[in-house]
Task: structure prediction
Amino acid sequence: MKSYIKSVLLSALVLVGASSCTNLDEEVFDQIMSTNYYQTSDDIIRAYVRPFEHSYWSITSLITLQENSADQIATYNRNGDWLDGQFYQRYHYHTWTIDDSDNPWVGAFQGISQCCSVIDDFNELDPEKFGFSREQFDAFICSLRTLRAWLYLNAFDAYRNIPLMVSAKNTALNSEGQVEPQVMFDFIESELKECIKLLPVKSGNGGNGVKQGEWNKAGAAALLVRLYLNAEKYIGKAMYTECAKYAQDIIDGVYGSYGIASRWDAPFDWNNDQCEEVIYAFSGAYGYAHWQYDSGSWWWGLPGNAHLYFGFKDWGMANPKFALQPSLDIDGTPYTYELGRPVAKYKKYPEDCRLKCYKNLPGESKREGMFLYGYLEYVDDNGNVKRITNPKGDYTLYIRDKVGIFNELSPEEDAKALARGVSNMNNGDHNSGWHLVKYPFYRDGDPGAIEADYAVVRLAEIYYSLAECKFRAGDVEGAGKLLNTVRKRYYPAEKYTEYLYKPEGNVTLDEAELLDEWGREFIGELRRRTDLIRWNKFCQGSWWDKAPDADTHTELFPLHRNILGANLKLKQNPGYEDIAR
Result:
């Protein structure tokens, strides 16, 4: 089943040019979306879908902010590859500057500008002239307002002190500089509450189907859950009671029928528009937008020759930009940091089905496992079994849960790499670090290849958010039961006593375990930094090759030099260099 946005709305991108998302010099969008532009119903659809496609693209810049700055994923030097002027090391060490990337700000505020422009236009147009009802137009506007709230929430989380724009035409309604965090919080909250009243409710069981990519009541309510869960950091006021109320309503079906999928990978698979766990997803397809798969995203989170292992050769070589941080030192000594060590955190429960090495199974669109590690074997065009090598073909890969300069060494010889340097961000090779494969890379010609939609909100997040609220309120057993509802799918049923939290199993749930469990469930889903900050671990904690920060100013990112120069009303966030004014 193809979604409405995928089959109808995304087709409009062929005409308006999806590639313009990568152009960071775009002009103000109210000059494009003028009333003179709208002549047919297709023009309405093109205008409506444009902010969605841009917003989908904006996730690519969040990987560095949310994952590279945290304790699970890193981009380390690999024999000279990905050194990139120490850019990724600065994000790992929390030493970024005002000259590092402005893409996250641009991604959010270009999308906000687009949403405002289209909302302005739609409020002035007569829907009947284009074959739409007033109700349909109102639904378009409300979906755009929710999308705008999502973009604002991303920017608010990263920068906190941001400007408020509500109209592209009536600029008097917008702030000249930043607004106080409370003002922005109140705006996002009020927008989402009003949209919950106006948006449609999901109908039927199963996934979103033809409505994939369109915001509904549950999606807006889920964004409120995110807002309230982090309110104590955002505005200095705990709002866990409010968070729990909306989370419980979503679980109880107040906003439509959803459920936890029986397979861990169903929310990320090619047909996830049929998965009842997906609350909101950006619609993607091989022939259209597919930003979670692209270069710069998770296609660049794989060994260079992984395409041979997958049998997916349409794009040529991959690129190991992102990989997991290690749990072991070069000689195999386990690290003892409380944070990080993602592989060790999964191996704490050794029969977790996600621990299997990723493999495309016989038949169409079937896979197992969530990581790449060890030797990766494939059959070449002549029927010979081979193992993938590093991009230059200098050595065969044996992918380790370690970072070092192993090169040609067999895993039994790892201790020899100690003479080549200590394990840190500057000393790695192409054997270093397990790779995450959450979205599948099926073989060439497989109808499911690069067809997955990007899951922005899953029901699992709602269960985990409610569990944290209960945990903070002292109901540890209630929290454990909620987490177990999701965790059951990872472990053998006959071992539940060994693997589930009390009282349904024997595992004790404490603060450290809860944060570890957030990490296991949502690794690579662009939230790890936020979760660490909420638990006061982002600046205060330590992990592989990362000491605690001197203070907490790095909980927020700086405004880039270009952003400050473009609007002198904007003030730099505390603790960072400012421009001359």
In short: DSSP finds 18 helices and ten strands in the chain. The CA atoms of residues 116 and 166 lie 6 Å apart. The mean pLDDT is 94.
